[in-house]
Structure formats: C-alpha cells, structure tokens
Write a structure and sequence with these properties.
By secondary structure, the chain is an alpha/beta fold. 51% of the residues lie in helices and 12% in strands. α1 packs across α2. The structure holds adenosine-5'-triphosphate (ATP) and magnesium ion (MG).
Length: 369
C-alpha cells in the first residue's frame, strides 16, 4: 500500500497546492508594496494572514525581512531577533554578512555568530544595556540602509505587531520608520483587531494614519468547493457537493477549520465520502479543541457569557430588540456593556450591524452546549 500525502493541511503557513485563492488580496498587496506603501492587515488567529503575505512576497523580486513579535519580551530581545531576521532576509552568505553590516552599512556594535546543529547561523549583537537605545536605532535603520545600498526595495513584515505595545518600542519604531520613504515597505500584521485598530486609528497613537489598511476576507465558498473537490479527486476519492456544503456550513469559510475538517474527513473515509461523516469529523475536532474553548469561555464575565448565548439565539441580528433582551434578562445598557466586552476581547466582531463570532467553531461548540 502506498502512503498518500494528504491534500489538506492545517497548522502553519500554507503555500503552493495548499494555498487556496486570495488572488484579490494578493494582487492588492503586491501593488501596494510596489508603490512603496506601508500596509496594515488584521484578522483573527488562524485566518491565513501569514500565508497570504508570504505568498504575495514570493511573487515579487524583493528581499524581505520577516519578524514575528509574538514571543519577544523586551527591546533588547527585539534588537537581536530583528537583526537575525534582517540577516536572513538579505540573502547574503553568512561569512559576508558581518562585513556587509559593519563596513558597508556602518553598524557599530560587535557581531558574534553562532551555528546551530544544522549549520545555520544566528547572529548576536554585543552591547551594554546602556547602549540599547542607540543600537535599536541603528538596527531599525538597517533595512533602509541596505535598500539604498543595493538600490532595490526591501519589505519588512512585522507579524503579531500588536505585541509592540508590550515591548514598549512603538514610538521609537514610528519615528524611525517614517523616514524610510517608499524604498522600504512595512507590512504590519496582527490578530488582535481591537489592539491593532487602536494602534493605527487612534489619533493619540504614534502609528496613526501611517498605513493603508488592506482588509482580508474569508475565502469564498465557490473557491473552497473547487479546492476541496479537487483535493479528494486528485487522491482518488469522491466527495459529493452536499458534503462540501456541510463542511462549509460549520467552518463558514474560515481557512483553518475548512482545512481541518476536510483533512479529518479525508483520512476517515474510503473512496466515497458520505454526508453523515462530516458530523463525525467535526465532533472529533471539537473533542481536540474543547480545552481551548473552555478556556476562552472561562475568561468571560457572567454577562459576557450570557451575551454570547444571546448572539447565538438572535443569530447576531437585532440584538437590542425587546423580546431578545427580555429573553436573557438584559437591559439595553447591561447588554451594551457586555457586547463591548466581548468585542474588546476579540471574541466577537460586527459588520453592518450584525454581530458574529470571530471563531466559527467556538460558536458551533457553544451552540451545542
Ligand atoms: N489561502 C489559504 N488556502 C487554504 N488554507 C489556508 C489559507 N490560508 C490559511 N489557510 C489555513 O489556515 C491555517 C493557518 O494559516 P496561517 O498560519 O497563515 O494563519 P495566521 O492568520 O497567520 O494564523 P496565526 O494568527 O495563528 O499566526 C493554515 O495552516 C491553513 O490550514
Ligand atoms: Mg501568523
């Protein structure tokens, strides 16, 4: 028996045959980077932000620097992680990197190099704590200096950028980056919409109006239908349309879950998939995700919990109607406060007066409780 590679994947970044659509966003992103804009993009976790940006960048000729701020705790760690990311992004052999940085780009601190088990280098800047402000400045200038040096645009992606607040360098970042013109394009990605909005849309914040916001939407059903159908068929299996519809009804087109359900279904089915199997696949996923959902639930106040139940009951519409509020013993002011809470916690979002859960599987799980 041959081992079949799965046509579906969920977890980290997806590319090539695992990357579905996003052609509109990809085009827009590439065009914005071409014209040297700085771009802001936010979407819930597991929505496909990183995949989209890396996929768009692979379609360009630019060098790019990719830094995930998620695990960085302070300015000094930022300096070293960013420096490493820059070294990796500029495609220079590691023995030449040090010369490039020191001689060509004029970086002052001493650089030491370490190699891991696979022979991959990692760089460290040696400086005193008292010098960290100066060094931060120098490192932040590097992408610009490098772009000028090679006379070619450089793209810098800051993933999970909302963490910049905890690192405490937002003002510094903004004051340096704003002088980098269109030869360096910055892409700011974030998964906490409320924090990202406050960073970029709040008049009193340093990043106010410094970017173009590129919205990222769910992948539409017709694209998923084709992708999932092709995934099964290219691996010798058949999936009826109603089955795909049942997947998308639960996942609501949310990328991670659409892939996850399709993946489970693919592995539990023989040649023909039957509709009741979708439920079995979903149940097995719920079992795996349940701890996470309980955790999310337990972080809510009583009124916020009640408000979520109300949203499910009202399907997110006309939530302030008398009947709906009475049903849950809410006054309009207590409901308003609870809704503000779940919006701020990024559990819920709203579009054109309708409220919806950011995580469709969390909603599904809750509705089954
Ligand atoms: N364009 C796409 N086509 C198909 N599946 C996708 C696509 N984008 C994302 N996915 C699915 O979603 C998963 C998460 O993608 P990715 O890591 O890019 O999201 P993210 O928004 O950066 O998540 P996080 O906030 O956790 O970093 C992928 O492993 C894949 O299953
Ligand atoms: Mg990501």
């Amino acid at each position: 028996m041959s081992i079949r590679k799965s046509p579906f994947y969920y977890g980290g970044v997806v590319k090539d045959e695992y990357f579905c659509n996003r052609s509109k966003e990809t085009k827009e992103l590439v065009a914005d980077i071409d014209s040297g804009l700085n771009v802001l993009m936010y979407a819930p976790r597991r929505f496909g932000k990183t995949s989209l940006v890396l996929n768009a960048l692979s379609k360009t000729e630019y060098s790019y620097v990719f830094l995930d701020l998620m695990s960085i705790v302070d300015a000094e760690e930022f300096i070293n992680e960013y420096f490493n990311a820059i070294s990796k992004g500029i495609n220079t052999p590691s023995d030449k990197v040090v010369t490039l940085f020191k001689k060509v780009l004029g970086l002052r601190p001493n650089i030491s190099v370490e190699f891991d088990m696979n022979g991959l280098p990692s760089f460290k800047l040696n400086f005193l704590h008292s010098e960290s402000k100066k060094v931060l400045n120098e490192v932040l200038e590097l992408p610009f200096r490098y772009a000028e040096h090679q006379n070619k645009k450089v793209v810098v992606v800051f993933d999970e950028f909302q963490e910049v607040v905890n690192i405490g360098i937002e003002e510094k970042l903004r004051s340096v980056l704003q002088h980098h013109g269109d030869i360096v394009s910055y892409v700011f990605l974030g998964s906490k919409k409320s924090m990202m909005k406050s960073l970029f849309f709040d008049k009193n914040k340093p990043f106010y109006k410094s970017v173009k916001h590129v919205p990222i939407d769910k992948i539409v059903s017709s694209d998923w239908e084709e992708y999932i159908k092709h995934g099964f068929e290219s691996h010798g299996k058949q999936i009826p349309e109603e089955c795909i519809a049942a997947i998308l009804e639960v996942s609501k087109g949310f990328p991670y879950y659409s892939q996850q359900i399709a993946y489970e279904l693919f592995h539990m089915s023989d040649i023909h998939v039957e509709t009741p199997m979708v439920q079995v696949a979903v149940d097995s996923i719920l079992e795996k995700e349940e701890d996470l959902f309980w955790n999310e639930w337990n972080h809510l106040s009583q009124n916020q919990k009640k408000a979520l139940k109300l949203l499910i009951y009202a399907e997110g519409e006309n939530i302030y109607s008398r009947e709906t509020m009475d049903h849950f013993h809410f006054t309009s002011s207590s409901l308003k406060k609870a809704i503000e809470g779940v919006l701020a916690k990024d559990v819920v979002d709203q579009k054109a007066g309708t409220y919806y859960f950011q995580d469709p599987l969390f909603e599904y799980w809750l509705s089954k409780q």
